[in-house]
Design goal:
Length: about 450
């Protein structure tokens, strides 16, 4: 009997080399555990030359650059991270830890979109009843959304062909599988192949496809990272599941600015957008406390005030620990070295813990000065002056470098009732900003001395 199965090969994720059967070690580059199953491309016979027809080229100036029309999802904070809304043919990946709110957000978005566009929600993880239960909880039970409980890729694609939706959610891409591959659903090859086929379909038909991807520990199940280069837009949920805040960040966006941040609160009735999140990441101290500094960071296009906390405590035997939550640990090590060399503050006999309040992640160097001063403040057990905002990048030579969009950060501080900013000299505004005293610093030792007074 003829074999009906499509031919598969095993290709190496490191070097791209192929072998006909699975092996622990790639025979081409010698790296271990890199072979994944893939569809074999039909190989042209050796004597046959492959020729292509010339395609027409166009002058750049003759191309209409207006782009495709966007349509909003109706959820303001979601539209913000998407760069204004969905684009027909756009493919989006929404990643995040299990239980953080991916299905909730997308069900809410689909319900809102459903009023104007044909929306199809493909659920592979939950039954349609479970989805309906969630919809009921969200007060969206009558939303104009079609549901499909299906995991087989071929069936999903056929259904899209018949139903002709304009927006499709695949929840999740890790449960989808194609019959063409023998590997298990959730493996790298399945996830990649399913996503590639659905992406092709999205481009051909101009339908928006949104993949849900669980972030997983390294292992048998492929995380959403393997898809980042295939899709147009990559969004990740941030924030810890213990707090009620949820952040959605655009890591990559072919249709808008990356690094935009959408802020939500998880309530009984699903995710609610927080339109003015600036004050959310400040803890409420009645008075200034040691080890706390408030930084004005830029999250995409808007400033956000975040409290940075440090605890510096003598080591309890063993080696000094350095731990950071929401802040770059490498950067912390660097800042402690600068603080020692250029600020004369020694932390080698201490454990140093730093934390960005509220589960937010800051990877902007503008937070350097705040981290440094929070550490110093905890070590000395002296609070920073009350109502003070700090920002500035710290260089290895002990200089405090300016950051971009200083004015906007200062204005935000003023808007939220802060009275003083400690910033790089070069960021000092030319005109005074009402109600704000500006302290400019040039060097680390200067900043440390200033806060000691
Ligand atoms: P869910 O969207 O199922 O997460 P994911 O798809 O990312 O795995 O969200 C699950 C969590 O959200 C769950 O812990 C319950 C909580 N939740 C609420 O607090 N309020 C709600 O209205 C809903 C629907 C969920
Ligand atoms: Mg889910």
């Amino acid at each position: 009997m003829a074999k009906t199965r499509t031919k598969t090969v095993y290709s190496c994720t490191e070097c791209g080399g192929q072998s006909p059967k699975w092996q622990g070690q790639c025979p081409h580059c010698g790296v271990w555990n890199t072979l994944v199953e893939a569809l074999a491309a039909p190989t042209p016979s050796r004597f046959q030359t492959v020729t292509g027809k010339a395609s027409a080229v166009r002058a750049l100036a003759s191309v209409d650059a207006r782009g495709s029309p966007r349509f909003p999802t109706g959820i303001e904070e979601f539209d913000r991270v998407l760069g204004g809304g969905l684009v027909p043919g756009g493919v989006i990946l929404l990643g995040g830890d299990p239980g953080i709110g991916k299905s909730t957000l997308l069900l809410q978005a689909m319900a809102a979109i459903g009023a104007a566009k044909k929306a199809l929600y493909v659920t592979g993880e939950e039954s349609v009843e479970q989805v309906a239960l969630r919809a009921q909880r969200l007060g969206l039970i009558n939303a104009p959304v079609s549901l499909l409980a299906e995991v087989q890729l071929e069936a999903i694609i056929a259904t899209i062909g018949v139903e002709q939706p304009e927006v499709v959610v695949i929840d999740s891409i890790q449960t989808a599988y194609t019959e063409a591959l023998t590997s298990a659903p959730g493996s790298v090859s399945q996830v990649r192949e399913c996503a590639a086929q659905l992406t092709r379909l999205a481009k051909q038909r101009g339908v928006v496809v949104i993949f849900v991807g669980h972030v997983t520990k390294e292992g048998a199940i492929a995380g959403p990272r393997v898809l980042e280069h295939i899709v147009d837009t990559v969004l990740y949920f941030e924030g810890d599941t213990h707090s009620s805040f949820r952040l959605v960040r655009a890591i990559k966006n072919r249709f808008g600015a990356a690094n935009e941040l959408g802020v939500f609160g998880m309530t009984e009735k699903g995710l609610k957008g927080v339109s003015n999140p600036s004050a959310m990441f400040l803890s409420q101290h009645a008075e200034a406390v040691p080890g706390s500094a408030i930084v004005a960071t830029m999250e995409g296009s808007r400033p956000l005030l975040v409290e940075v906390q440090a605890l510096v405590d003598p080591i309890q035997g063993g080696i000094a620990r350095r731990l950071s939550v929401g802040l770059d640990p490498q950067r912390l090590a660097l800042l402690l070295a600068v603080l020692h060399r250029h600020g004369g503050v020694e932390t080698s006999g201490y454990d140093v813990f730093v934390n960005a309040v509220g589960g937010v992640k800051i990877d902007e160097p503008a937070a350097d000065l705040a981290i440094l001063l929070a550490v110093n403040s905890s070590l000395r057990n002296r609070p920073l002056p009350a109502k003070t905002i700090v920002f500035g990048e710290v260089g290895l030579a002990g200089e405090i470098r300016p950051v971009q969009r200083g004015q906007e950060r200062i204005r935000e501080a003023s808007k939220l009732g802060f009275r003083q900013v400690l910033i790089p000299n070069a960021n000092k505004p030319r005109q005074a900003i009402e109600g704000i005293k500006v302290l400019g610093v040039e060097r680390v030792d200067e900043a440390v001395a200033m806060m000691r007074e």
